[in-house]
Amino acid sequence: MNWNDAAEELLNSILLRTPRPVRETTGQDIRRTAEQMAEEESKQRVGVETVIAAWIEKTPEALRSTLPQQIESLGLDLSEYEHLLR
Fold this sequence. Notes:
By secondary structure, the chain is mainly alpha-helical. The protein is built from four helices and two strands, in the order E-H-H-E-H-H.
């Protein structure tokens, strides 16, 4: 599955904020989930919204309340992704 540059950069930014002991596993989980989501939607490549959806899905429930702040801290407009947080 192809990834656009912005999606790849976003995943790398997310992983830089992920604790080292779980960084590799988290990256693999998000990547696999994003690619599955893209395939299910018949997309040819993974984009930013798909990465964010995978990130949200793979984030433990206890930590999801921090995602809006994390999304904004990555320079993204939270209003574009709020529907994914529901």
